[in-house]
Amino acid sequence: MYTYVVRVVRAEEWALVKDLRLLALRDPVAPLAFLETYEAAAARPDSFWQERAAGAAEGSAGVRQFVAEAEDGQWAGTVTVLVEEAGTVDWAGFPVERRQAHLVGVYVRDEWRGGGMTRALLDAAVEWSWKSGVERVRLIVHEKNARAQGAYRKAGFIPSGRTVPLGQGAGEAEYEFVLERPEASDR
Ligand SMILES: CC(C)(COP(=O)(O)OP(=O)(O)OC[C@H]1O[C@@H](n2cnc3c(N)ncnc32)[C@H](O)[C@@H]1OP(=O)(O)O)[C@@H](O)C(=O)NCCC(=O)NCCS
Questions:
Q1: Helix, strand, coil in percent for the chain, rounding step 5
Q2: Can you give the pTM of this predicted structure?
Q3: In this structure, which topology does domain 4-186 adopt according to CATH?
Q4: How far is the C-alpha of 184 from the C-alpha of 171, rounded, in Å?
Q5: What percent of the chain shows pLDDT beyond 70?
Q6: Which pLDDT does position 169 carry in this prediction?
Q7: Domain range summary for the chain, segments of one domain joined by +
Q8: Binding-site residues, ligand 1, Cβ < 6 A
């Protein structure tokens, strides 16, 4: 197995950002894991991916996309951090009470799973979040996505008790998992 580094994407790497996202959207778990469909993403123009990469690179405000880059240059996994400001309303219509980071788009290629890459990506995202001064880090995971839940628990996330109902699936829900900011002395 190759080694890898976890780093932030660069604006000019938009085609790699697109390729990894399209791969993630073809994963068998994608309907549970992501709100977007492969067809919708594949139909987006290059300008969409260019803006996405530029908006998640170093120097952009409130967003970072991390990737795990293998020795041979392959992008093997990713997570994106979105800072949500207190007083705003999130995408599901809930008020954001405290300044927080929201982790989205978590994906690791099949052949890299089970080897710690997800933890390395989550740790990088969480470290950046604390440096950004947020009070908590959260993510949303489908109730049936047991593997993702296991990975998040290993990284210290716990269910907050908040659930987000899903419009399309009868009675299905997603759970909010959260990591509270440790006291300065614990970090
Ligand atoms: C989610 C994802 C990033 C996790 O990465 P991973 O490398 O597979 O995760 P890990 O193997 O480190 O951790 C998963 C844990 O859940 C456990 N697990 C796996 N399947 C499980 C199941 N059906 N029920 C309960 N636990 C399960 C694993 O055993 C493991 O715990 P362990 O290391 O103590 O044995 C990866 O599987 C992925 O990309 N999935 C497709 C996209 C996706 O679901 N993204 C998340 C969107 S919220």
A1: 35, 30, 35
A2: 0.95
A3: Aminopeptidase (3.40.630)
A4: 41
A5: 95
A6: 58
A7: 4-186
A8: 27, 29, 33, 106-108, 113-114, 118, 141, 145-148, 150-151, 154
